Every structure is written in structure tokens, then in C-alpha cells.
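Demo today. Your pick:
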Amino acid sequence: MSKVAVIMGSTSDLPVMQDAIDILKELGVAVDVDIVSAHRTPEKLFSFSKSAHTNGYSVIIAGAGGAAHLPGMVASLSPLPVIGVPVKSSNSIDGWDSVLSILQMPGGVPVATVALNGAKNAGILAAQIIGSSNSDIMDNIISYKEGLKEKVIKGAEEVKKTFQ
């Protein structure tokens, strides 16, 4: 079974990254969670990144704030797809430093980047990657998206009732 690794630079990132964890579980994707700091535990970062593909992971979601080097460094060391989640942290410049650090990767080292604090979309994207070769996960994604559509339709009906 394919797994997603959700990693972050510190425990302070967990409230944002929880959205990725929750949606992955909702979509039936196995998930492991860890703290891997690019700056404070570089040896762990190297070990994790170099072995992730042999440890059953299919996708890595990496969230980081401030200078946000974690997603790019993981992508430089791992052959797996990496999805970066810029996190607006206490030491960030309104989150823009994190967004640009993750988004502006050099050619050859891609990191898919979601919106600031957009961990839920990172989880959905990871599930879609896995779903491209796993029909059970694909069915879960189709159902999830159908649920989104139904929610909008019901909301539109409520709005119409309110203003008629």
C-alpha cells in the first residue's frame, strides 16, 4: 500500500499540517508524520530523504515556515514527488518568504507548491497522485469531489430560499 509522509520543520507547524493528515486519512491514504528540521536536524533530513522511496512512501508533503528550506532540500535528495506547504510562522514575513522559498526552485529540483497554509490541498494532491495508480483511492477522490459539488448545490439552494 502506498503511503504519504507528512513532515514539518517543527511542532509549531502541526496545526497547519493537520489538515493534510486529516484529508489523507479521510481519503483512505496511509500517512506517517514526523518532524524533520532542515536546519536543526540535517542528518535526519538526509537520511529520511534518501531512503523515503525504499520505505514505502509514494509522495512527501513537507511544510515549513520562515526560510522554508525543508521541501526543497527533501526534493534535492529524494526521487519522490514533493509537495511543499508554506507555513505562515511567527518569524515569517507575512508568509511570503516561505511561499517564495518553496516556489522558486531551480530547474531539475521541482517542488509542487500549494497556497500559504494550504495543507489540505497538499493532502488532496498527494492522494490524486496515488489515485492515478490505485483505483480504491481514485474512487475515494471521486466521491470526495462529488461531495464538494453537492455542498455547493445545497448552499446555492439555501441562498435562493433566503433571498426570494
Q: What stands out?
A: The chain has six helices and five strands. The CA atoms of residues 5 and 32 lie 5 Å apart. Helices lie at 14-26, 42-51, 70-77, 96-103, 119-131, 135-162. The longest helix spans residues 135-162.
